[in-house]
Amino acid sequence: MNFRNIHEHGLVRIACAAPRVKVADPAFNAGRTLEMWQRADEAGASLCLFPELGISAYAIDDLLLQNPLLDAVKAALARLVEESRTLACIAVVGAPLRVEGRLFNCALAIHRGRILAAMPKIYLPNYREFYERRQFASGERTAALSVDLCGQEVPFGPDILLSATDIPDFVVHMEICEDVWTPIPPSSYAALAGATVLLNLSASNVTIGKSEWRHALCKAQSGRCIAAYAYSAAGTGESTTDLAWDGQAMIYENGALLAEAERFADEPQLILADIDLERLVMDRIRQNTFGESIDAHRDRLDFRRIGFELKPDRERDLGLARAVERFPFVPSDDAKLNELCFEAYNIQSHGLRQRLASTKLDKVVIGVSGGLDSTQALIVAAHTFDALGLPRENILAYTLPAFATSQGTKDNAWRLMRALGVRAEEIDMTPACRQMLVDIGHSFARGEPLYDITFENVQAGARTSVLFRLANKHNALVMGTGDLSELALGWCTYGVGDQMSHYNVNGSVPKTLIQHLIRWVAQSGRFDDEARDVLLDILATEISPELVPGDGDKPAQKTEDFVGPYALQDFNIYYTTRYGFRPSKIAFLAGHAWSDAHAGRWPPNMEEAKRLAYDLPVIKRWLKVFIRRFFETSQFKRSAMPNGPKVSSGGSLSPRGDWRAPSDASAAAWLADWERIPD
User: Fold this and answer.
1) Cα 582 → chain centroid
2) Which residues does the annotation mark as catalytic?
3) Which residues pair with 499 in a beta bridge?
4) What percent of the chain has pLDDT over 70?
């Protein structure tokens, strides 16, 4: 096993080619096809897709009905079959084929000296610039099940899936151009029959705006089918007698664009992407309506499965031909991040707005520490009360210092409360906490510097208790402030502690996103300059629970010293809860995302000091902490978590929503897989 090889983690690499062609010259076209096929093979691709009728060229009209041309196509295919014996990569090429006295526009899959299948185009456009029915027959009702080609009996028909016997879930379907433009594309049935990789060999001349529509089709089809969808269109060299060609090629996976070729390029284009087969299959399992669609259309799912042994390269480190965001909850694209922050902020606000309306309350109580989470909850409250036309004085904000509260965070809490114009008060929790420590006989009450979990939780519990009693007094709702990251790691005090509230707007927002939400609000002009300045100061403060006394100016504790970098733990949370990945795969992806601080894109406005790199040993260390805390020690806290709105995909641990698990589970299975990660 090579841990760094993509095939060990449920991925397979595919390629799309947009080669140069010569009109009605199969020998030339086969040569250019072979060159790009070899490039794809050297790059570790297991499959390479070529355009529709790429062996003959597409726009040759009645030349398709000339025997010399068709004979030259057969000779070109024979050459490709022979050359394929030394290539591990499958080539899927387009060519016209004579079968039982008719001509079919076909997709052919060639692998290691064998033509795996020939699939005819079903829907033949005969409108506007297209006249395919003049030359071709539809493959919809062909009676032939095989065709004699290059000395082989080749499976033939529209009902074929290609299934690798040595790559789990690598099941391929081929359709051609117009097939995907129809109301129910053939690939829809193929996906329901088990295909995970859907291919479209296209010619598709270019007109203004057509590229965007192709993107929409491929994106939607990949999303609806929970599949990869690869598309390759004709380009340089096709006849421009009446049409033009842009060589558009793209690879989508479940609605996400993984790779795209340059259009109108002077040179042949080859794009690569690694498809996560495991992710697709697990998503199909989760989305029960996919299975119900299988049941509803079972009479249309009678596909023949043609098996083949791929024998992929399992030894080399092939790298990873797909982008892995360092922060899966935080886009690195400025426009997307802006849109995400807008939506997240408003989801939180609308959730709180509805809860206030349903409870017929017009006040909230919130504890403000000067840290990230309470800051985000407070600005959401301010926005909500503005939208409801309620005075901000109805937001009853309290800073609750105790033994470990630093002067810097307390000052920021006061600055923020004043800047937002909420009703602000301070209640010193030190006497109440000291009395409880006396009552329970804790050593700290006798002057010993014992800062254990009891000492910490006395403070957290006292704060929450007083907030609930204040809510009783003022007929108000207690707003929670704890975030998704803390809930996942169990980094919260259960019951009478920061785990509990009447409503928690932050419960499905990870720590890494909260930082960007605060910055987005600060820079958006929603509040005045005074508020903006304190928000930026809070962003620069070290994350700390402030439960152990320090020097009085700065927090003595650093949360990430205990639970690990939130950047890594949020990565672990996302891929565990959203996709159910095993720890070894999460570590593999994290290694590609985090090993080089200078590679890839960072979210906008990310401070240079926070642009860190983590090597595999560090990733492995904190992943073990995550596994133990998430699976074994903290589920009971999530099973009793308060209400709050779901904000992002993969971002809810509510027992009433996305995550339901027993509180007494063992982490043994996850830890056993964790052992596979090299040191």
Assistant:
1) 16
2) 52, 121, 177
3) none
4) 99
